Amino acid sequence: MQAIDKITYSTYWITIVFVVLLGGIVLLKLLNEQKLTQRFYAIFNFTFIEDELEDGYKYLTPFEVVMFIFSATTLTILLAYLALYMEGKYKITFALFLEMYGVVFLYFLAKRVLEFALVRLFLVQKKLHTFLNSKNHYLHSISFLIFILLVLYEYTDFKSTALFFFSFFLFVFRFLLFFIRNKKLIFNKLFYFILYICAFEIAPLFILFNLMF
C-alpha cells in the first residue's frame, strides 16, 4: 500500500511517461519512417497529406494504433496541467493522470468508432475520406508539437501561460488548416458540416470538460 501511495503522489512518474512517449516516437520511426515524417510535417505542408491520402488510410495498423495512443497520452497530460492551473496547483499526480487518461482515451476511441461506423453506414467513405483523414493527421501533427511544449514546461522555466497559449494557438491553427483544406466540401454541405461540428466536436468536448473539471 505504501508503494502504491508513493507512486501515486510522486512526480517522478511523469519522467517515465515522457520516456515512454519518446519510445513511442522511436517505434513509429521503426514502423514507418516516411509516414512519421508526413504526420509531423502535416500541419506545415499540404503535400505530405496529399501523398499519404493517395495511399489510403487504415485505422488498425500498428502505426495508427501507436499514433493514437501517443496523441491521447500527450493531450491527457496537457489537460491535466490545465486542470491543475485552474485549481491553483502545480504538481500533477499519477492518480489524476490515470483518471483523466481513461476519460480522454475513451472519448477519442468512442469518437473514432462512431465516425467510422456512420461513414460506412451511410456509404460516404469516399466523399469524406479527405475530410476525416486530414482532421486526424493535423491532430497527430500538433500532438508532436505539444509533446515538445510539455517537455519544456516540465524541465525548464517555460511558463504555464505560454504552454496554454501556444497549445491553444496550435488547435486554432489546426482548425483553420482543416477548414481551408476542405472548404469546397464544407461550403457545399454547410448544414451537415455545422451539424458535424456540433455533434462530434463541441458536444463531446463539453461533456469531456464537465467530466474532468
How would you describe this structure to a colleague?
The protein has 213 residues and is an all-alpha fold. The chain has 10 helices and no strands. The chain has helices spanning 2-9, 13-31, 33-40, 46-54, 62-87, 94-121, 129-155, 160-181, 183-188, 190-212. The radius of gyration is 18 Å and the shape is globular. The two termini are 28 Å apart.
Summarize the structure.
The protein has helices at residues 2-9, 13-31, 33-40, 46-54, 62-87, 94-121, 129-155, 160-181, 183-188, 190-212.
Name the descriptors:
213 residues; mainly alpha; 0% strand; globular; disordered N terminus
Overall pLDDT confidence: 77
Structural class estimated from helices and strands:
mainly alpha
> Helix-strand pattern, N to C?
HHHHHHHHHH
Number of extended strands: 0
Give the overall shape, derived from the CA principal axes: globular
From the N-terminal CA to the C-terminal CA, the straight-line distance is 28 Å
- State the major sheet: none
- The proportion of strand residues reads under 5%
Helices, strands, pairings?
Blueprint: H1 2-9, H2 13-31, H3 33-40, H4 46-54, H5 62-87, H6 94-121, H7 129-155, H8 160-181, H9 183-188, H10 190-212
